[in-house]
């Protein structure tokens, strides 16, 4: 027996060696690798948090904040499979594997590819999957290699490769029926990522139909084979996503039916709950059964197991009421949703947004601003129309700021107008209120401190852990931290790091019942606010002098107070007109200013703006009234000249000054990056000052703002329209230059950084992301012509052994086109260690002794950015990103 086993060399391909190596590969290597991979996938699945406010992904992969969770299991799988391959792969005399000699080696390669995929090492995964698909072309497993390649190309957005493989497999008549459901699901995933909803629906429907039981779904087009094994979890997820796709396409009836089907399948509770909500939300209430559906939702809200979901239930009920034109009930449910939202920040943001939009549409700007202000810190930056939401918040905040100036100055003047005894009594009452409020706050802080004082003592010395502690203590165990973070987010959502993070009601927020101060409260609040802005830390609140100091008690102080109100009125009127496009509110505000302050510095301009506003509102009598005021009170003014000679308005100096001022303000907004505001102002300029000499410049600012906040096609269209509209204006050449630049950038041609900056930013928007604490590679880009790549890799390996022997680095080379070769050194724990390697290798002459240095580029690159870089193949773009981000000093 000993002699027989000694003959089991990997260089011999006999029945004995094949049997020996197959058995050892299967039970000593592959079995444990497969189990480790299953354990890692189970951890990812358990920790995965679905965002039901968006279309769900078909497949659950590791999310960014729990990427390390399964890394240990995947590393174990890679190690086991690699060891099995090294010890048991039967090869020929040239050390090339004899395919099929050890049938479990192919499974090991596939397992390595899967583990690399789940670790998001996509290009190493591609290497493994390509090996499986090509080396074992005669065996069924090569189809698994192709399917995992499609999965990888989808995940890395290399859609041309995905499409090519999908076409090949669909045309392959030998493709196994047991894998058809996976193929159609991957095809649906490909279309979903490209936002091609109709083909996504078609292929997902086919995938579902291939999973038993067939169900009521109708398959679009013929199927070659019958259904395969039933997977309830997979099928319910697919049907839920199919319902979302139908809703996306506007087929609410079909979507509602599918959501109901999901609920009947009894999937895990989160999905069942959201399916029931979506069914209720999309239900056609014209059949008279709407009240019954509402009662079912209210019953769900009362169920204790739905305590964490009540915010979503009330939000759904609000949507139903608003759809039925019952706005008060809808608002009430939205406020309830906000009040009970303890853990789901996304839902709280949606409820705030709905409330803000309702009040904005009703032009109730005080409430709208309060809700937008609460919304902005919660909403994700990738939320649709995020920039517009932020712009609305900024505009409304500016408006409320000016309205508050009016309220405060009014209130201060009201107190100043009191006789001294009444004024002192008022201030004494205010002091008592302030003292009571500060006492209440101190008691709240003390209570919070006492409630948070129960801490768990730590064992050992976490600052200097021993080797044993480093592995077992919670905060040195990355997998435990990942599990804890995922579990925390499932329960509490995303929470800011702050005191009393568990409490719903913070000191300054009363969620749901956001109420601007009433008129009766204004006087008290105004005096208190002015006092608080002037009071230093620790200053007494009991002295009257502190409150009297800022009251306008003299004629000069009253005049200054009036000037502040006039400015605030005029600013508010301008914001109503230009930012909020609310002509009636603008006119009312300017008229109130003129009523209270008949003679002020804005009189002539205000009369003219009112004249233009009423013309726009088609109120000819009021427009004529303000026209006559200008002609009567300022007969020799440029404004009067404009009104007397409308045919010369475009050449009038006065109008030119107004337009110039407006353009200057718009340009200031552009330089500040407030592009939504610029777009709004350009629209106003076109309606009021259309045809002026500055119209081309307004349109140019509009095009540039579209470039900064829109997509490349919209940017090109805006520039093209400008070129056609102003064929003789100098701005045409500038616009044409930018249009040509956009085309060059899209075609990958050599570009001028100044002229092409906006287009380049659009094309590569968010292409690369800068993260320091993620896995990094050292990437060396070489000209393959005349370069001995193997010799260079040997030099590099010697360098690594000499200077980085403890890091366990690996070297791989990948062609990038015909003449370019990428040599990849991996892995480094973070940016800092990768940059240390970068500095060392750049300065080592022996590594590059046989290569022309002018043809070499060396970068540190995150694993995520490497995928983008390899797909994009644009060294210049990454070099700019690298030089901009990797050499900046930390503050």
What does this structure look like?
- The protein has 891 residues and is mainly α.
- Helices cover 63% and strands 3% of the residues.
- It is built from 38 helices and four strands.
- Strand 2 and strand 3 (820-828) form a beta hairpin.
- Helix 4 (105-118) packs antiparallel against helix 5 and helix 12 packs parallel to helix 14.
- It is globular, with a radius of gyration of 35 Å.
- Residues 1-6, 214-230, 453-479, 494-513, 515-521 and 533-540 have low confidence and may be disordered.
Give the biggest sheet. Answer: 4 strands, antiparallel
Number of strands: 4
Instruction: Tell me the structural class.
Output: mainly alpha
Tell me the distance between the termini. 69 Å
Uncertain runs:
1-6, 214-230, 453-479, 494-513, 515-521, 533-540
Radius of gyration: 35 Å
Q: Could you report the average pLDDT, rounded to the nearest whole number?
A: 79
Shape: globular
| Number of H- or I-type helical stretches | 38
Q: List the strand order in the largest sheet.
A: 2-3-1-4
Helical content class: 55-70%
Which range does the strand content fall in? Answer: under 5%
Brief descriptors of the model:
four-stranded antiparallel beta sheet, 38 helices, 891 residues, mainly alpha
């Amino acid at each position: 027996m000993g002699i027989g086993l000694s003959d089991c060399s990997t260089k011999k391909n006999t029945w004995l060696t094949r049997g020996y190596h197959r058995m050892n590969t299967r039970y000593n290597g592959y079995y444990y690798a497969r189990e480790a991979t299953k354990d890692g996938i189970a951890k990812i699945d358990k920790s995965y948090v679905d965002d039901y406010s968006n279309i769900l992904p078909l497949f659950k992969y590791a999310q960014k904040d729990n990427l390390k969770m399964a890394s240990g299991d995947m590393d174990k799988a890679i190690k086991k499979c690699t060891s099995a391959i090294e010890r048991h792969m039967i090869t020929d005399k040239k050390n090339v594997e004899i395919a099929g000699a050890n049938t479990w080696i192919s499974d090991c390669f596939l397992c390595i590819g899967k583990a690399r995929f789940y670790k998001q090492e996509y290009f190493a995964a591609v290497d493994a999957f390509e090996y499986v698909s090509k080396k074992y072309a005669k065996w069924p497993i090569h189809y698994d290699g192709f399917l995992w390649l499609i999965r990888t190309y989808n995940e890395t957005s290399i859609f041309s490769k995905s499409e090519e493989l999908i076409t090949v497999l669909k045309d392959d008549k030998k493709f196994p029926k047991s894998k058809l459901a996976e193929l159609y699901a991957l095809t649906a995933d490909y279309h979903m990522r490209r936002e091609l909803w109709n083909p996504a629906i078609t292929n997902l429907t086919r995938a579902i139909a291939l999973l038993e039981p067939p169900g009521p779904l109708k398959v679009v087009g013929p199927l070659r084979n019958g259904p395969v094994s039933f997977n309830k979890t997979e099928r319910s997820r697919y049907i839920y996503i199919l319902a979302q796709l139908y809703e996306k396409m506007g087929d609410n009836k079909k979507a509602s039916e599918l959501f109901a089907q999901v609920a009947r399948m009894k999937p895990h509770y989160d999905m069942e709950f959201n399916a029931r909500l979506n069914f209720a939300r999309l239900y056609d209430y014209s059949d008279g059964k709407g009240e019954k559906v509402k009662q079912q939702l209210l019953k769900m809200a009362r169920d204790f197991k739905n305590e964490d979901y009540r915010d979503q239930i009330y939000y759904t009920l609000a949507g139903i009421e608003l759809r039925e034109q019952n706005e008060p009930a809808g608002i009430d449910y939205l406020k309830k949703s906000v009040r009970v939202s303890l853990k789901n920040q996304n839902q709280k943001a949606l409820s705030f947004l709905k409330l803000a939009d309702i009040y904005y549409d009703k032009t109730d700007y005080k409430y709208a601003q309060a809700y937008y202000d609460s919304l902005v810190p919660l909403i994700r930056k990738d939320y649709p129309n995020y920039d517009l939401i932020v712009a609305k918040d900024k505009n409304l905040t500016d408006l409320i700021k000016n309205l508050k100036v009016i309220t405060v100055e009014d209130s201060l003047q009201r107190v100043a107008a009191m006789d001294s005894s009444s004024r002192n009594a008022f201030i004494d009452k205010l002091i008592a209120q302030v003292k009571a409020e500060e006492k209440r706050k101190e008691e709240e802080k003390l209570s919070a401190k006492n409630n948070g004082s129960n801490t768990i003592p730590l064992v050992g010395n976490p600052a200097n852990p021993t080797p044993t502690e480093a592995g077992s203590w919670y905060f040195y165990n990355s997998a435990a931290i990942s599990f804890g973070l995922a579990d925390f987010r499932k329960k509490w959502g995303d929470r800011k790091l702050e005191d009393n993070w568990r409490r719903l009601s913070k000191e300054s927020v009363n969620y749901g019942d956001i109420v601007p101060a009433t008129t009766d409260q204004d006087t008290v609040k105004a005096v208190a606010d002015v006092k608080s802005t002037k009071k230093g830390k620790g200053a007494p609140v009991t002295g009257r002098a502190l409150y009297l100091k800022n009251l306008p008690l003299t004629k000069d102080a009253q005049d200054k107070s009036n000037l502040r109100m006039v400015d605030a009125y005029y600013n508010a009127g301008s914001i109503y007109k230009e930012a909020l496009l609310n002509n009636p509110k603008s006119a009312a505000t300017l008229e109130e200013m003129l009523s209270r302050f008949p003679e002020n510095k804005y009189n002539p301009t205000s009369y003219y703006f009112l004249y233009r506003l009423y013309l726009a509102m088609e109120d000819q009598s009021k427009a004529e009234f303000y026209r006559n005021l200008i002609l009567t009170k300022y007969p020799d003014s440029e404004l009067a000249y404009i009104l007397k000679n409308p045919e010369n308005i475009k050449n009038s100096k006065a109008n030119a000054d107004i337009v110039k001022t407006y353009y200057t303000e718009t340009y200031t907004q552009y330089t500040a990056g407030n592009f939504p505001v610029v777009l709004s102002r350009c629209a106003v300029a076109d309606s009021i000052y259309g045809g002026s000499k500055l119209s081309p410049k307004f349109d140019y600012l509009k095009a540039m703002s579209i470039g900064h906040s829109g997509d490349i096609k919209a940017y090109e269209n805006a520039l093209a329209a400008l070129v056609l509209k102003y064929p003789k204006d100098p701005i045409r050449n500038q616009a044409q230059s930018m249009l040509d630049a956009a085309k060059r950038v899209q075609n990958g041609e050599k570009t001028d950084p100044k002229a092409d900056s906006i287009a380049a930013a659009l094309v590569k928007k968010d292409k690369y992301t800068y993260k320091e604490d993620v896995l990094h590679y050292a990437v060396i880009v070489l000209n393959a012509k005349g370069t001995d790549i193997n010799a260079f890799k040997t030099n590099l390996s010697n360098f690594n052994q000499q200077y980085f022997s403890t890091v366990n680095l690996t070297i791989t080379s990948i062609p990038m086109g015909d003449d370019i070769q990428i040599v990849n050194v991996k892995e480094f724990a973070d940016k800092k260690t990768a940059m240390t390697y970068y500095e060392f290798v750049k300065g080592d002459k022996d590594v590059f002794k046989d290569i022309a240095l002018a043809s070499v580029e060396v970068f540190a690159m995150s694993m995520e950015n490497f995928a983008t870089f390899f797909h994009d193949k644009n060294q210049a773009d990454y070099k700019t990103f690298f030089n901009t981000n990797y050499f900046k000093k930390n503050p």
